[in-house]
């Protein structure tokens, strides 16, 4: 597949953004390619289209599968594995939020709770304890809010976000 200029620009940009998000550039580019194409690709086609090594594609696909952003599909008459991603941006957003929460937020909340229940806590500075409590409270409120937002249907979530933006603008003006 030959990429057209806009698709190429998007894929390259997504790769750059991926590296800023802590994701390998090729991983992000493969996801962008599958997202834009809206159809399954085999690993060889991905490697040829993006001009990257086949081994890099294989490793990147494994990472995308671990994130649950890419799934293996089989096509009639073709023995190779093909890979696809959802083209529903809200579904992708939810998968990414859930994955980041499991990898980053939940372990941090666990450590904060352990710190606050530790026998060594009384030996710490009061400022340290206070900031850990504040951080834990903040993270618990934010995760509860995210959980509620993720339960909404996409159209309801968009309306909620729009109302939230208008409310924020109104509060700032006062």
UniProtKB/TrEMBL annotation:
Keywords: DNA-binding, Transcription, Transcription regulation
Gene3D superfamilies the record matches: Winged helix-like DNA-binding domain superfamily/Winged helix DNA-binding domain
Residue stretches making up the HTH marR-type domain: 22-80
Transmembrane segments: none
Keyword DNA-binding among UniProt keywords: yes
Family annotation (InterPro entries): HTH-GbsR_regulator, HTH_MarR-typ, MJ1563, WH-like_DNA-bd_sf, WH_DNA-bd_sf
Keyword DNA-binding appears in the UniProt entry: yes
Family as reported in the entry's similarity comment: Belongs to the GbsR family.
Stated name of the protein: HTH-type transcriptional regulator
Taxonomic path: Bacteria, Pseudomonadati, Pseudomonadota, Betaproteobacteria, Rhodocyclales
